[in-house]
Design a protein that fits this description.
The protein is an alpha/beta fold. The protein has 14 helices and 24 strands. The strands form six sheets. The protein has a four-stranded mixed β-sheet. It has a four-stranded mixed β-sheet with strand order 2-15-17-16. A hairpin with a 2-residue loop joins β16 and β17. Bound molecules: uridine-diphosphate-2(N-acetylglucosaminyl) butyric acid. The site of uridine-diphosphate-2(N-acetylglucosaminyl) butyric acid has 26 residues, from α1, α5, α6 and α12.
């Protein structure tokens, strides 16, 4: 297993291109199960999680090929041929490595009227139940049986239903929206998740012929259709990757431009960077982080979109560890998302945690050390801290970063960071 080695202290400089969004690409690839034929997906990021979902669908008979660049589209498409389904099972071995595998449940029951999907179980950031996915499917007429760690789902044709989410859930909304596209009648999803990735999936479903109203609002109305057709689609860019590079630039006091930045999706995040004294200029898909000014502690509270994303909490905490004054961080989405705290402390950060509150008291300098993390965003926060720490930081368990950051070492090296990957 590889590790990342960083010699900290170099201000980043230059331009970095933001990749396609992991959390949009995953449901969109799952959605290809809904319509037999060849889909063409652009801007699919090269990530371990994408390879995992491809393996999952390949087990079901879906064939993936790299296409050739063509027409007005930038880059080469991923061709997804989903004509034949040979299995409706998502096995434990794959679901346990990536919870988002549960996104095949909705499309499978909609198309094949049956599915057998391993229950994901807990993960490094909390319990993460899927009760709301299952309750919604039951309301649509799906019989759910839990057996030997698997969700077994069976249905005749799905029926439209009115469904209220007690808590807005991103993948829950996505699963039910996908299922509803082929249901008989109208489905209304209330208190639906507002995350932009849900909207991106809705737009792909519409490109396939789905009838969906209320996109980017918390009430989605889906009129079921008899069939969907394969589609060509360009996946949105990754707001969390953009926010992560923003934190990396700010902590090193560098000047970095993010190209292809999803500015409209970063309002809350950019607002907090600005409040902390980071100078940002955003225009026409480009955000430039300028050095200068004193970094000061600000409070953040994670919240569903359009609030401050839980997926940026760890990276922002790393930045706050070098701010002037204190910062209070409140994590409201996941119960166990402070696994990075004890590792940031190993680098010299002054952080104390009580329940879901973390108090970060800014210090003058972090010191490099070997660290490891148990999830993707926690690992990203350690890389950010390592970029500013004196001496050498080694981030172990690189596979977490491979899950969600496209070419991280290459992108940071191109910005001047002294960073390399080597066998641990
Ligand atoms: N929840 C339930 N019951 C459910 C579903 C969710 O109680 O049936 C609760 C969760 O326990 C949590 C809250 O609802 O407290 C929100 O969870 P949500 O379902 O929205 O999370 P998710 O869909 O499993 C997605 C992203 C996560 C991101 C969260 C929150 C994907 C593939 N994953 O997860 O991304 O943190 O939304 O925004 O879209 C990451 O990329 O690093 C990552 C973890």
């Amino acid at each position: 297993m590889d590790k990342i080695v960083i010699e900290g202290g170099v201000p980043l400089s230059g331009e970095v291109e933001i990749s396609g969004a992991k959390n949009a690409a995953l449901p969109i690839i799952a959605a290809t199960l809904l319509a037999p034929g060849e889909h063409r997906l652009y801007n699919v990021p090269p990530l371990a999680d994408i390879r995992t979902i491809k393996r999952l669908l390949a087990n079901m008979g879906v064939v993936f090929k790299d296409g050739e660049p063509e027409g007005a589209h930038a880059g080469a498409p991923l061709l997804v041929e989903s004509s034949e389904l040979t299995s409706v099972e998502a096995p434990y071995e794959l679901v346990k490595t990536m919870r988002a595998a549960v996104l095949v449940l909705g499309p499978l029951v909609a198309r094949a009227r049956q599915a057998r999907v391993s229950l994901p179980g807990g993960c490094a950031i909390g319990a993460r139940p899927i009760n709301l996915h299952l309750k919604g499917l039951e309301a649509m007429g799906v019989k759910i049986n839990l057996s030997q760690g698997y969700v077994e789902a069976n249905a005749r044709r799905l029926q439209g239903a009115e469904i209220y989410f007690e808590t807005p859930t991103v993948t829950g909304t996505e699963n039910l929206m996908m299922a509803a596209t082929l249901a008989k009648g109208t489905t209304v999803l209330k208190n639906a998740a507002l995350e932009p990735e849900v909207g991106d999936l809705a737009r792909f479903l519409i490109a396939m012929g789905a009838e969906i109203e209320g996109i980017d609002t918390d009430v989605l109305t889906i009129q079921g259709v008899k069939e969907l057709k394969p589609a060509t689609y360009r996946i949105m860019t990754d707001r969390i990757e953009a926010g992560t590079y923003m934190a990396a630039a700010a902590i090193t006091k560098g000047k970095v431009t993010l190209a292809n930045a999803p500015i409209a999706h970063l309002t809350a995040i950019m607002g907090k960077f600005t409040e902390a004294g980071v100078r940002l200029a955003a225009e026409a898909g480009r955000i430039t982080i300028h050095p200068g000014g004193t970094l000061t502690g600000v409070d953040i509270r994670t919240h569903p979109y359009p609030g401050f994303a839980t997926d940026m909490q760890a990276q922002f905490m790393a930045l706050m560890s070098l701010a002037k004054g204190a910062s209070i961080i409140t994590e409201t989405i996941f119960e166990n998302r402070y696994m990075h705290v004890s590792e940031l402390q190993r680098l010299g950060a002054d952080i104390s945690v009580t329940g879901n509150l973390a108090v970060v008291r800014g210090c003058k300098q972090l010191q490099g050390a070997p660290v490891m993390a148990t999830d993707l965003r926690a690992s990203a926060s350690l890389v950010i801290a390592g970029l500013a720490a004196a001496g050498e930081t080694q981030v172990l368990r690189v596979y977490h970063l491979d899950r969600g950051y496209a070419n991280l070492v290459e992108k940071l090296s191109a910005l001047g960071a002294r960073i390399r990957r080597e066998p641990a």
